[in-house]
Amino acid sequence: MNVKPPSHAGNVRRLFGRIAGRYDLMNRLMTGGQDLRWRREVIRRARLQPGDRVLDLGAGTGDLAFAIRQQHPQAQPVAADFTLEMMQVGRRRGAMNWAAADALALPFREGAFEAIVSGFLMRNVADVFQALQEQHRILQPGGRIVILDTTRPRKNLLTPFIWLHMHAVIPLLGGLLTGHPEDYRYLTASTENFLRAEELASLMAAAGFRRVGFQRLMFGTIAIHWGEK
Q1: With 80 as the cut, is the pLDDT of residue 166 above it?
Q2: What is the mean pLDDT of residues 185-201?
Q3: Which of 119-123, 145-149, 156-160 shows the lowest mean pLDDT across its residues?
Q4: CATH number, domain containing residue 138
Q5: Average of pLDDT values for 24-47?
Q6: Of 53-57, 90-94, 99-103, 218-222, which gets the smallest average pLDDT?
Q7: What is the spatial distance between Cα 225 and Cα 151, in angstroms, rounded to a whole number?
Q8: Cβ(178)–Cβ(18) under 8 Å?
Q9: How far is it, in rounded angstroms, from Cα 42 to Cα 62?
């Protein structure tokens, strides 16, 4: 079920607090700017309608929430995270509804949202299945969930280059920009130890989601998953 020890949440909060100021820049550099295109696809998959309440869970600095506001001005996005420093950076970007929230115990009523989106959240939660159950609980019937995250790729001719990028290039960039290369070694490890795309899809179905599907991106290292309540 991909459950981590009790200390995990505190460690993750401190890590993201340290790198909050350079988080968005590192995302652009690590992905060659492709993360912007992936987020647009996440929003497209959410099939938002005017007036829809949509939760950007594990929002960080609010990349998805702000993109939703741009692309769907009549939607009602809420950006939720459990790292104060990330939300402080996000609040400097512009007006947005923010909420402090733990993905394992969401402070929202049942059926509060028509859609939930997340970007690079699920690999960091202590209990993936519980996080999925919580998202299922706060969705309206027929509501959509869309998850953007890393996934373990199948071995292929590019495997050595992917390994080099993850174990050498990313920590080097992270160290130069944030002064904390060890934090980006954690991000590499969390990617390699996260569920395969098929396993996450199975957990989504077990949590009650239907019409579950996924698409691999970036040489199989990234996946977008979607489903409905």
Answers
A1: no
A2: 80
A3: 156-160
A4: 3.40.50.150
A5: 86
A6: 218-222
A7: 11
A8: yes
A9: 14
On the question of pLDDT at 98 being above 70, the answer is yes
**CA distance linking residue 75 with residue 175, whole number of Å:** 38
- What are the C-alpha distances in Å from 187 to residues 72, 99, 101, 190, 191? 31, 24, 21, 5, 6
Domain total in the chain? 1
Contact 129, 137 (CB under 8 A): no
**Pure H helices in 2-105:** 8-19, 23-31, 34-46, 63-71, 84-91
pLDDT of residue 117: 98
Per-residue buried b or exposed e for 183-217, using 16+ beta carbons within 10 Å of the residue's own CB: bbbbbbebbeebbebeebbebbeebebeebebeeb
Torsion angle, alpha carbons of 72, 45, 197, 19, to 10: -10
Is there a domain that residue 190 lies in? no
Q: What is the pLDDT of residue 157?
A: 64
Distance between CA 190 and CA 72 in Å, rounded? 32
**CA–CA separation, 195 vs 7, rounded Å?**
20
pTM summary value: 0.85
Domain of 140?
A: 8-152+195-228
In contact, 87 and 96? CB cutoff 8 Å: no
